[in-house]
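Researcher: Next sequence.
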Amino acid sequence: MTDEWFEDELPWLGPPPPLPPRREQPQSNPVPPAPPRRPARPRVSASSAAAVASYPLPPRRQRAPQPALPPVPPSAQLPQRGIGEIVALKWLGVLLVLVAGLTALALVLRDFRGPAPATPTPAGQLVIPLAEETGNPLAGQQVVANPAFDGVVICLDAAHGGVDRGYKRMGDAIAPAMDEALYTAAYTRELAGQLTAMGFTVVTTRDGDTVQNAQFQDVNRDGKTRENGSSDAEAAQNALMDEMQARIEFCNDENADLLISIHFDGSSQAEESGFTTWYATGRGDSAESQRLAELIIDELDADLAAGGFVTTNNGAKPDTVAATHGSQMVYDSLFMIVGSRAGMKDSSRMPGVVADLLTISNGTDAQILASETGRSTIVQAMAEAIGRYFTETAALG
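Model: Next structure:
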């Protein structure tokens, strides 16, 4: 078809418009030029390869072989628990938790119900009265302080204590088991209350089951202590000497006017009984000590007889008789009141006596000592004797 067709067939259209010139389209993603090719690796000749292969390489370092672990012995292997055992252990834990909870609940309910019943005192155990509970042991008797006793200091020594228990008796159908160290502490505390009510100033070498030389020091400066004793017996004797020296120094430091060491006698012979007092000879105050010892004997004899108690009056004895008494314990107890003895650094500076208040190895005496009436009677007799000692001293001028 030619251009004349348009003109002949469609004259109203006119000639076709001229086409615009063709523009060059810019390339949006130009293709980067190809990188230059790497030069070909030169071929290695056979002679060169042989030369490289013949070059010695350094030896490769070998690791040291690790020692093999020993096999675990069967005894050290952990047991493999079965399922049943694991379940049983879980139920056991649950049961323990339930028991603990029930126990706690029972304790709470017990506290809500009221106070627990008092624990009964075992046979042979003596309850030491509290200091504020002591006083006049005789019920209904009014004690009035004597102004004459004001400022007078009495040093009471409860013998034994600590590891030193003194005499002991086994309980039987007649009397309970007894420990001398506990009974001397109880009687001393009650006597201290009685004397205080009378107007005296009272100091005690021990109150309760204690001692003066608790650290076992060399109080008497003889170089012998419990720690350097060559045997148990020697160690106990060294400790006893240091303890009694410590008690003497306590009474001296308190400027006491009188020293009374309270004991109970004992013997392997069950028939031996009664009470005894001891005083020291060869001292400047021996006469006063003897007078006090005899006053205590008189009052004990009278008051025990008035109370219906039957026992033996062994009298007041000097320390010189103790060697023939046959008792090492009695001889040692006089250390508190004698003027001098081996192992003594300083002696007491006041009149004094050792009082054996009945014999605990005797069944009848033990009954008296363990009874409240017997204890009250003995304490009252001791207090009356001490009161008489000072009133008679004042009367003698």
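Model: The chain is about 40% helix and 10% strand. The domain at 133-396 is CATH 3.40.630.40 (Aminopeptidase).
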